[in-house]
Hints:
The chain is mainly α. The protein has helices at 2-9, 12-46, 68-74, 80-113, 120-134, and strands spanning 57-58, 77-78.
Amino acid sequence: MLREFREFAMKGNVVDLAVGVIIGAAFGAIVSSLVGDIFMPIVGAVTGGLDFGNYFVGLSSKVTADTLAEAKKQGAVLAWGNFLTIVINFMIVAGVMFGLVNLIQRVRQNEDAKPAAVPRQEVLLTEIRDLLAKRP
């Protein structure tokens, strides 16, 4: 049974999937940093520092706090601002991912579109054929 598991685990698809998951997690951290450290500060600067993170609606009369963290301690809240921030982050991440995938596909298409170099032997044979065709 251990041998069967080892054979399964060492199949190409399983190893490829494991590598893909690990690289995907690392790439996700890069994209999250790009969004959190580059794009969101720009969005904040353009909107005058607007942060939806603390916008909420208290679901009971006991909630009187001004910040979301304090309001959650007081009772149930509908944190619509936090949800909106997460949706905006998702849209930015999705846009960045879409752009990167498009870029990768264009690079691959350009590589595929390049004609393969004609081997020297074929060039010589073509020249010989042309010379022979010109002979009477």
